[in-house]
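User: My collaborator sent over this chain with a note saying "see what the structure looks like." That's all I know about it. Can you take a look?
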Amino acid sequence: LANTYLDNLETIIRHCLTIQVTKHTPSDFGLQSFVSYQELDQFLDQPYGTSILFDQIESVYPLSGLQQGMLFHSLYDEQAGSHIVQFSCDFINLNEDYFEKSWNQVIAQHTILRSAFYYDRFSVPVQNVLKSVKLSILKKDLSNLTKNEQNEALEHFIQNDLSKGFDFSEAPLM
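Assistant: Without extra context I'll predict from the sequence alone. Here is the result:
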């Protein structure tokens, strides 16, 4: 019995070593109680950017209780802007290249800033940590406007930005 068990185990190991394609299972992410391997394969094989999600994923987690509550409130009352914080400030003599590189370095070091949330793919919502995310920075030149027009345009932009909310499946969520 022991020899047969070892033979079968070695056969499985040889098989796994010859497979050229890496696959994940729900247990790799702690999702075995919630997700079938077929659901996970279908999810990871979906297009994402120029490749598939599988190539972009660093990890997948079930949400914590607090994250589930925040997601619920954000989805339930998306017009209210719950849990969205908006910050604005003036920079004088900003080096735009360093600013962008600095934010992208912060994003690269902190997984929560590379996270996207999928709430409708499985029986439980999940958080995907992506391997690489770049911050998209919108630049608007208002120098051709008067000071009052600049203030109005800025206030209009701030209100529109706050009201549009987030697509939770697109990182970074800022």
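A starting point for your reply to your collaborator: The first strand starts at residue 47 and ends at 48.
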